[in-house]
Specification:
The protein has 247 residues and is α+β, with helices and mostly antiparallel strands. The protein has two domains: 7-47 and 181-237, no CATH class; 51-169, no CATH class. Helices cover 46% and strands 15% of the residues. The strands form two sheets. Strands 1-6-3 form a three-stranded antiparallel beta sheet, with no helix packed on it. A three-stranded antiparallel beta sheet has the order 2-5-4. Strand 4 (138-141) and strand 5 form a beta hairpin. Helix 1 (7-17) crosses helix 8, helix 2 (29-46) packs across helix 8 and helix 8 packs antiparallel against helix 9. The radius of gyration is 27 Å and the shape is elongated.
């Protein structure tokens, strides 16, 4: 169908783009599955529509405190921060809370959008100066599936919640509209074409009945050019700029 909603429909769509069923696409089912995985991985790594920002909560266990880290799901690929936790965040009678309250609202009078914006900037500066107001010190690497929190033992207790702000990939099997993404369809078609050319290159020059000569190298070269063009277009049009670290 023109709007694929599953893995199999996406494969059949791409094969039709390459000439099936008029032409036989000489690619094994296992190779087709590999190319789909490769295309989805590329899509999730670089395409801005393949991820979404959200908050995820985690209930702290004794095992988390002993390890010094919490285990996160594989589809969580980037963590911005964890939301503030502790005396400043929760206790309005703490010294830090009252200091912020006095500095921000006693020294500045409300009444304008400009004043509000300046107050927020001032609050951000105070957050950088006081430990309890700063973002929690964390270390994260995607393929470890672990979020290390430096002060987890002192700042958290069993049954506390840790709220994580980050980006997760969209599961195409759950949100099937992903299979109809224009970039994904074009990219997978080119990958299957390159695989087809790879399989047929060893038969280059072979004469078929009727005098037809096979040329797998031409198929491969055309597919490689398409892939390079699509990847460059993706980087220029769909990839989000890298996050900037300040300080």
């Amino acid at each position: 169908m023109a709007k694929p909603t599953s893995r199999l429909e996406l494969i059949e769509y791409c094969k039709r783009n390459l000439g099936a069923p008029v032409l036989e696409i000489n690619v094994a089912p296992s190779q087709l599955d590999d190319r789909v995985d490769e295309a989805i991985q590329m899509y999730q790594e670089y395409h801005s529509n393949a991820t979404f920002e959200h908050l995820r909560k985690h209930l702290v266990t004794q095992n988390d405190l002993d390890n010094g880290y919490i285990t996160i799901p594989e589809n969580l690929i980037f963590i911005s921060r964890i939301l503030p936790h502790g005396a400043h965040a929760n206790n309005m009678f703490s010294v830090e809370y009252q200091m912020h309250l006095n500095d921000i609202y006693s020294l500045r009078s409300p009444g304008s959008v400009l004043n509000y914006a300046m107050t927020k900037e001032y609050q951000g500066l105070l957050n950088m100066l006081f430990d309890n107001g700063c973002d929690q010190p964390i270390r994260f690497r995607r393929h470890l599936d672990r979020l290390y929190i430096d002060d987890i033992v002192t700042d958290f207790a069993v049954d506390d919640y840790i709220v994580i702000e980050g980006y997760s990939t969209i599961d195409p099997d759950e949100y099937t509209d992903v299979y109809n993404d224009a970039f994904l369809k074009r990219y997978l078609t080119a990958l299957i074409k390159r695989q087809w050319g790879t399989n047929m290159k060893k038969f280059t020059g072979m004469q078929l009945p009727g005098g037809v000569e096979m040329n797998g190298q031409t198929i491969f070269d055309e597919a490689q050019a398409d892939i390079e063009k699509i990847e460059t277009e993706m980087q220029l049009r769909y990839e989000e700029p890298p996050a900037m670290a300040i300080g």
